[in-house]
Amino acid sequence: GESVGLHLPTLSVQEGDNSIINCAYSNSASDYFIWYKQESGKGPQFIIDIRSNMDKRQGQRVTVLLNKTVKHLSLQIAATQPGDSAVYFCAEDTGFQKLVFGTGTRLLVSP
Amino acid sequence: GAVVSQHPSRVICKSGTSVKIECRSLDFQATTMFWYRQFPKQSLMLMATSNEGSKATYEQGVEKDKFLINHASLTLSTLTVASAHPEDSSFYICSARDRGLVSNEKLFFGSGTQLSVL
Question: What is the side-by-side order of every strand in the sheet holding A72-77?
Fold first, then answer.
């Protein structure tokens, strides 16, 4: 879903489940995308990135999928853990050496 | 990995006070640093791009006379909120790009500064 006002979309999962967080980006010319994790009161932490010449990239427990046709990104987290609870942002490189961040999704992982 | 140090982490001040926030790259040189602002439960919004030795580039709607940026060395950029007012209360975050790399693959963020103006 999209953020409305002050409410972040929230995804609630059980520990051990797989999580999928989605993001729509705006600029079809963007060629580089990054997922960040942000814990309360801290700066964003790099998770995984992907270039526009790829449609999938895997890291440790995380996978990013890119669908350029519909300008959509997703972040898949396998075997989600309580420590994964945070707000997740996608960001696109607009080509001017600066990032535009998406609206964010709060992930809540229950033990 | 590369570290970006941001200070202070939290500041509470009276209305009308000017507040300076520092962003340092500890183990790399950063020709470019970025300053973001984040309101509660919202995304990061780019305020300005800070380039070493030249004037900062501000995003549309950001007052350059209110948010003064100085990037005097390859390891330090400062953001000064001039005559802060309660509406300037926010979480300010800096990031620094490793000079040796050509893309944002290596963009490192500070830990943020929570500014509360009374």
Answer: A19-24, A72-77, A62-67, A56-58
